[in-house]
Acyl-coenzyme A oxidase (Hevea brasiliensis), 1478 residues
Amino acid sequence: MTDLPRGNWTGSYLSDLASDSDHFKLHFLRGEEDLVIQTAKKIAAAGHGLRLGHIPWINGVSKMKMHCPYQRLPDILLYIEESVCACASLGFVGTAGSTIAESIELMRKSDAFRKDNRVMLSRKELFKNTLRKAAHAWKRIIELRLSEEEARKLRFFVDEPAFTDLHWGMFVPAIKGQGTEEQQQKWLPLAYKIQIIGCYAQTELGHGSNVQGLETTATFDPETDEFVIHSPTLTSSKWWPGGLGKVSTHAVVYARLITDGQEHGVHGFIVQLRSLDDHMPLPGITVGDIGMKFGSGAYNTMDNGVLRFDHVRIPRNQMLMRVMQVTREGKCVQSNVPRQLIYGTMVYVRQTIVSDASSALSRAVCIATRYSTVRRQFGSQEGGVETQVIDYKTQQNRLFPLLASAYAFRFVGEWLKWLYMDVTQRLQANDFSTLPEAHACTAGLKSLTTSATADAIEECRKLCGGHGYLSSSGLPELFAVYVPACTYEGDNVVLLLQVARFLMKTVSQLGSGKKPVGTTAYMARAEDLLQCHCSFKRVPILSFFLLDLLLHCCYCTMSTEDWLKPSVLLEVFEARAVRMCVARAQSLSKFPNPEEGFAELSADLVEAAIAHCQLIVFPRKGVKQQLQNLCNIYALNLLHKHLGDFLSTGCITPKQSSLANDQLRSLYSQVRPNAIALVDAFNYTDHYLGSVLGRYDGNVYPKLYEEAWKDPLNDSIVPDGYHEYVRPLLKQQHRNARL
Amino acid sequence: MTDLPRGNWTGSYLSDLASDSDHFKLHFLRGEEDLVIQTAKKIAAAGHGLRLGHIPWINGVSKMKMHCPYQRLPDILLYIEESVCACASLGFVGTAGSTIAESIELMRKSDAFRKDNRVMLSRKELFKNTLRKAAHAWKRIIELRLSEEEARKLRFFVDEPAFTDLHWGMFVPAIKGQGTEEQQQKWLPLAYKIQIIGCYAQTELGHGSNVQGLETTATFDPETDEFVIHSPTLTSSKWWPGGLGKVSTHAVVYARLITDGQEHGVHGFIVQLRSLDDHMPLPGITVGDIGMKFGSGAYNTMDNGVLRFDHVRIPRNQMLMRVMQVTREGKCVQSNVPRQLIYGTMVYVRQTIVSDASSALSRAVCIATRYSTVRRQFGSQEGGVETQVIDYKTQQNRLFPLLASAYAFRFVGEWLKWLYMDVTQRLQANDFSTLPEAHACTAGLKSLTTSATADAIEECRKLCGGHGYLSSSGLPELFAVYVPACTYEGDNVVLLLQVARFLMKTVSQLGSGKKPVGTTAYMARAEDLLQCHCSFKRVPILSFFLLDLLLHCCYCTMSTEDWLKPSVLLEVFEARAVRMCVARAQSLSKFPNPEEGFAELSADLVEAAIAHCQLIVFPRKGVKQQLQNLCNIYALNLLHKHLGDFLSTGCITPKQSSLANDQLRSLYSQVRPNAIALVDAFNYTDHYLGSVLGRYDGNVYPKLYEEAWKDPLNDSIVPDGYHEYVRPLLKQQHRNARL
């Protein structure tokens, strides 16, 4: 889809394509030509909307109303070529013909996977519906003999939180990572075939981030060779685990291990919760759902649960013993498996979270960008059409940096996959050298990308004006379902403090000759990056002229164009991160007690951690022009947003920041013609987007109007309650009314 | 409620009170003493929780469980004195004994005003419930013969968007403001007695902010002396008006006036929509609800509606003709009533929005602050209790600036009431001189306070960790119900652009001798504020020493303590606003076409407008120490957040910003002991707060646990859908299952 008339192709991807005839064939065809008909048929068969309206000689499309002339057909064809190219090159989901594409089609066509009525369902109906979807998806996975990865993608397109997320994403990996060979052989086949359903019971009512503070106990009873799992206090109730409330038959439960009256830290235990016969909770177990959560639909499809144990006994071999064993006599024995292995799992989970952030963000940006081209407001000259809101700089200034972030997160997500592979290979070879850096890196990126995405979804909602507030825009539910990512798997502030701690350690070791590795490698150049390029201490002669220079020009030769050079931007971001880290380290060193200093300066440390993480996301490789523009927008927007950091550390001057801002504005103009192509390249189906405002065909208003009438309030013309509560008021009978 | 043990009173309001024995009497009493018993009885009778647990000799309290020793009684008594003082001095809602207090009690005790089940109801049940509440409230208003203001407060405590908001808040004021005397005499009595119910139909499916772009037409037919109201296109459908969907019998409809084939701008018309007999829509009228909106509960209690007219005829005298009349012959005649009067209404509406922002923000802050003292995480030494999360600097750094803003918005809201009165008096005296400034000021404050509040509610939710995501925390619904304030009554970005336009005009007139008035008065000192105090052009002799000074010290004598002086902070904020405005004006002057320049630089102009508006909120009068601390936190936090502005305009140096940051940290420590008292002073009842996390008695965990079991999913132990969708999976019968 392009919203640009032919005359405006100059400077857009369309003119690029036109000029690159070796690689692209542009079709300027009439409606009745063969290629048009074939392609249109394909589009229609796939059930996509057509921007141009209907083509009468194709079945099934005729009901669509015509609202733009046939001449626009070439745009559609171009869209197809462009988006297929984009998919292929960027690796976005859903390229036609793959098993993934089949899954997408399944979702779209089967009534079982309907999403649009979700916000209107009661909690019970909603939940039952989710159980139904999970069963349908599983049946399909079995029928198609999907691989684990393919099955994961199919569940992704179901697009609804469900107990299966925890079964596959936490229960199975916990057993794989922490169970012995024997335990894996016993439990994994049951889990793989869904003969048992598991969840991950760690968080408690009174304890979240601080795992070492968990209160649930697992006391070894040598007489019976069993552990006694118990909830000693109200605050020790397990609270939040997904899938626990109504579905799971088993759980990996984290509890304080006690043998012989001594505590041995927190460990995982496999505990059966419900009967496999009638699903009733087993004796000593109290379990239920913890109640409604943010939004309608959203995470209310998940049975986050509460769980209490009253001296529940399990066999000794149900403690996950890969790292530490409890013997028949109740002795704790460390195995020779390195504890660091669990960090590998953490890297994996956080890598998927970054990848999910990029999906959620690109989805919101896709909706907001498309609607911004449909929506018009103000600026009409003598009764003509109003201006598309995407043409306003204030809109571009909010929207395009989010578009840039969606791409940036996508690339950093891909890179994290590589990092995880690298870490895994090293761990297998007993090389733990990169682990602390990889751990800090994933922790920081988890925090950075989830916070940015949550804020961005809400910003996209606001960018859609009033209509973004309607459930049918898809954005309210996307927001509500996404925001917990900022809290689960590590609260974002707690994670940034971990990153800050790692950075302070790295800085303190700079003098020792220990080379910083990976994403902190730039710190090896700290000395150079700390040199203020305008430092007057280096200037031998002073004059008014020179002083002016000093005050206005750090990287003295810089012009507006210099802000487009990746090397310049990168260096400025590196300088900022290094300077902030070093300054914080200096402040810390003034405290007699380092821990006290860390606590006192924690808010500043978080800022240094953010500066470092923003640098990691910074794309470094050579990229094509449009992506380079996005990359520059990503960097220059952050530079503007955190201008205080850059100025206070002397990395740039006010004059330079003003040049950078000019450059940013001009980049917006360059991205504008390609905005739709860039979001179309995400290749989301209308079903997956689930947004009337973000429809591929741009046919927003008629659809909004149509959707409105589906609300239950419109079932009757006169609403329920009129006779009891409205009529008595109007008829002045409220004094006598029995309300 | 205080969460501080006696030994820690030093430096808190408690020690202030203790030392000020002339004004405060501190009660250190034993449980059986008379004053204690009487007060405790009062608390119990009012149904409040007791932090200390139960007092066995008072009825109705015995069921509460004891969880802290009797010695804490004095804290409660202190609370009562403190909060009553606070209420009285700050004018917060709900001082005991007032009719408002009665309304609050009514809400709390009557089942009709129950709120806690709202998120679980279906749309239809929810809406019927709202109709019921509105009827109950009206009955009560009649019974108690409440004044208009008292009735407004009662509706405020119902705490649920309803059609009555639009009837009283928009329909009635529109007739008052735009109707002739005659029209007012005819329609207002009907509206006051609710013999008709009205709404305000302005926004259309395709048109929001740009009122002049509305498409609905009102064509005068001289033959019948009627207007023909018509919706010529789909996008002209009225869309969003609250109360329109299912309830209103009448609407003020905005439409393009056409007489004799000529257009005469957009005007308001009173149109009857539904029969007063059977509530059916009248001929030619299509009306319904526009569907579900953000969140569960929240704004879904409101019947925002869609409305289409098919040549609906109304008598000529139903056009609101105070400013312009259409004669029997179809001629348009301007009345001698100044058009500016409508701006007065706008000032009024926006003033109430600022006031509502302060309520919503203080509510969220109250919940987050209380829960931050209850929640503990990390930091336990050898198995002792963990640290209260409010004691972490990262938590304070996010929470206390919001607390400061809640107070700041409260004060600026009070000031706006004065401004509105002042404007009204001037308008009555035909003095329009302050109107542009007042208009810009309220537009800017509406934008600033609603954006800040929406973000702050979500931040408070995150500050409550995982539990903030539960509906029972009250924060998800508060967020969902609040956010539309950023869009309605003027999109926040559009409003800031209006402010920017006004500021640019003010700057351009600085040389002309025209004095800027009101909130822009500081611009008269532009010349002084533009002088960089460290400008080297003023320095006669250069030396290394002086240069160092120049680079590190603008207000050269400034120390950390200087950042606490209101005059210093104010000047820095004024300098920043002036410098940003002047810089933008200079950039604008470089464009040959000013409108083009305005469009190109709009994002920068918005920032200048924000700088100006933040300055308006800045409290200026002498305030008591704790409030002065909040005032400084408000300013210093903004200074840190917008550091780039201050540095790039040369208002402060990096060194100074670092001193300001040190000061901010130390202010947090001073506010910490008073945090609970400061939020208790808002004096919200538990019923109004509607949050398990924000309970006055701090009894969070048992209540969370209790609430969980009320979820419909817990009606049965085995969930609906188990037999159809879960059991077949577990029993490996999915291949044959009929899903």
